[in-house]
Structures are given as C-alpha cells and as structure tokens.
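Progress against Task 2.4 (sequence-to-structure conversion) is shown through the following example record, which the project officer requested during the mid-term review.
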Amino acid sequence: MNHLLASSSLSPNYFIGPLFLVVIAIIEWWMLFVKAGKPGWASIVPIYNVYTLIKISGHSGWWLIFMLIPIVNIIAGIIIWIDVAKKFGKGVGFGIGLIFLNFIFAGILAFGSSTYEKAA
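Structure tokens generated for the chain above:
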C-alpha cells in the first residue's frame, strides 16, 4: 500500500511542461487578438474570448449561440477558424491547420508577417 502512495506523488517537473505550453498559448492568442485590433486581455476571458474570435472572423456576435449548441458548435467552429485564416490572408488549408494544430498555426498568425484585413 505504501508503494502506491509513494508512486502517485507528482514532482514539480510534472507541471512545468504543461504550464509552459499554456503560457505560450496565452501569448499567441493575446498577440493574435492585438494584431486583429482587439484587446489582448480578451483572449484570456472565458466565453468573451470566443465572442471576440467570432468578431475577428467577421461574423455577427450572434454566432456565439451556435457555439452553445452541440454538433452545431463543431461546424460553426470550423467555419470561424477558416474565416479567421482568410481575414489574415491565408487559405482554407491554413484554416484547417488552425483547427487541428492551433498551437502551431496560431503562432504563425500571431508572430508572422500576415496582417488582419478588416471588413470593408
């Protein structure tokens, strides 16, 4: 019994990797929001960050309701990320990259040379 307790204790190193990834993701999203002309702090506020991302994609804020409906939220999320990619001058393939490898592609948008194109 004692060996089970000893093996279940976690070292601080167990948390460093995930914490590092969370910090990088926050920085990426913050810079992405700023690049799109939105406040960076909006990227860390739950629900409001989704609303702001919807606005960045060029859709009405009412799309937030779609994000609350199961199954519909998956389709809406795909459309939103593809439209975010388009707003930064990227194609559908890049949008798919944002869906499946957000950590990498959001960093490319945030720190790359692409610029945000506001709606005309």
